[in-house]
Amino acid sequence: MKLRLMTWNVHRCVGVDRKLDVERVADVIAGCRADVVALQELDVGRARTRGIDQAHRLADLLKMRSHFHPAITVEGERYGDAILTALPERLVKAGALPGLPKIRALEPRGALWVAVDLGGVELQVINTHLGLMPREQQVQVAELLGQRWLGSEAFTAPAVLLGDFNALPVSQTYRMLTAVLRDAQDGLGKAATATFPSGFPILRIDHVFLAGDIRVAGVESPFDPRARVASDHLPLIVELEVATPAP
Q1: In the 3-class helix/strand/coil scheme, how is 168-236 assigned residue by residue?
Q2: β-bridge mates for residue 82, sequence order
Q3: Which residues of 48-85 are buried (b: 16+ CB within 10 A; e: fewer)?
Q4: Quick one: DSSP state of residue 9?
Q5: Res 134 pLDDT > 80
Q6: Which of 6, 26, 37, 131 gives 20 to 30 Å between its CA and that of 227?
Q7: Is 20 helix (H, G, I), strand (E, B) or coil?
Q8: What CA–CA distances, in Å, run from 168 to 73, 156, 160?
Q9: CA end-to-end span of the chain, whole Å?
Q10: Distance from C-alpha of 86 to C-alpha of 94, rounded to nearest angstrom
């Protein structure tokens, strides 16, 4: 089965023009024709973004369902990550990732796991947004690769781990991940697609990692004016072919 998968840090739907515009973000996503959408940096009920439930609003505009996990909750205001899809799905797990206890100023991070039904085969999809410090990232990746996430009995291929990892391919964080999973951009015979910053993308910090019988049919990132201004990251879209049982 063919599937278009997207990961995008939407910067709380505030573009590089400093304009809050949830509808613009929805338009970019719709134009990418993604079947499963993993988003980072969403606001839900926060005063700074007019109290909008961005996860629910985007899902409504795109005629999808959403699962949201708040990495931060303060007096009812929430901030975190979401997975949107119109395909049959179920929530498997959502939870916090560890940080560095001695550095209290670090932003809390989390992960969200949804199983998507592809007509007889479940695709495990885990969306995350790692910290900025290399040591912090490594602690978080060790948690994701451990028994509570990828090492659990519930984690079965085919599977995808994707999101904003804040880690370049030369980093130890990336090497930890590719020791277990494969980068969707490897082996395509072309230069890998960068997504940050959106106006002049030169850095690969948004990634899609795969496990199991999945073939990558293509990788793309929109570079039209609307996509370039909607967030400080560009979306990363990976078209997959996932093996499913014959009817």
Answers
A1: CCCCHHHHHHHCCCEECCCCCCCCCCCCECCCCCCECCEEEEEECCEEEEEEECCCCHHHHHHCCCCCE
A2: 39, 68
A3: ebeebbbbbbbbeebebbbbbbbbeeeeebbbbbbbbb
A4: E
A5: yes
A6: 131
A7: strand
A8: 29, 27, 18
A9: 12
A10: 19
- Token pair 């940096």 is at which residue? 41
Pairing relationship of beta strands 77-85 and 65-74 according to DSSP bridges: antiparallel
pLDDT (tens digit per residue) in 84-111: 999 999 999 999 999 998 888 899 999 9
Structure tokens at 30: 């719709």
User: Helix, strand, or coil here: 86?
Assistant: coil
Helix (H) or strand (E) holding 129: strand 122-129
- Taking the C-alpha atoms of residue 104 and residue 100, their distance in angstroms, rounded to an integer, is 7
> Residue 234 corresponds to which amino acid?
L
pTM of whole model > 0.90?
yes
Give the chain's domains with CATH numbers.
2-242 (3.60.10.10)
40: its two tokens = 């980072």
pLDDT(247) > 90: no
